[in-house]
């Protein structure tokens, strides 16, 4: 049994639970004996059946097909989930997208979509969850290292993730007196389908610059995230290189920017 600080949650809400980090966290929660409500655009029947086979005792898995950018739809789905499974003791927003381009080549639509999914989606998730979460609960939002340091071609992504970190800071302050803990997860790059697609269509310069923080296998990243969540750590960054990047970006900004500038200059020469 995993060592959750306040005991294993009986009911957990996970957005983006149909793939990537969200799916791996869902599996871990089920292994600990929790019931899980998954909120996602798509969750295939075969995957749902697989997850249900992992349930222990009276635990359950339910799916709610919803667009995280639709506040009313998210609220209604969470109302249904709370009525079916009970109030969430733990909830984590993993829904997100990564769209990259040089800012001067980025369409308004690309920027807007990143904000609506990553930032407004975090807002919608938190608002829906907090209607039902009681004292002792734990709310977590997935942000990114890009939420603390801008990287090449991350104009939309970093802006949205900086917003998620800011939202989490405010929620931590406001919810602590109510007995609800908040975490914000700020990982570097993780080997997920989202990163595979970014490598396919994105900038080689971005890939070279981001090597500084490293790339973690999803299983390793999820284990590091879980370790932080179980302790109810506020800011969670799995992996040594990513932790070092976060430290430099926050505590030695001048040095960090110099390192980034050097890597960008070198990468631009390499790809020419």
TrEMBL record:
GO (cellular component) term, any one: membrane
Any matching Pfam family: adh_short
GO annotation terms (biological process): 3-keto-sphinganine metabolic process; sphingolipid biosynthetic process
UniProt xrefs under PROSITE patterns: ADH_SHORT
Annotated ranges, domain Ketoreductase: 10-191
GO molecular function terms noted in the UniProt entry: 3-dehydrosphinganine reductase activity
InterPro entries (UniProt xref): KR_dom (IPR057326), NAD(P)-bd_dom_sf (IPR036291), Sc_DH/Rdtase_CS (IPR020904), SDR_fam (IPR002347)
Family classification: Belongs to the short-chain dehydrogenases/reductases (SDR) family.
Name of the molecule in the record: SDR family NAD(P)-dependent oxidoreductase
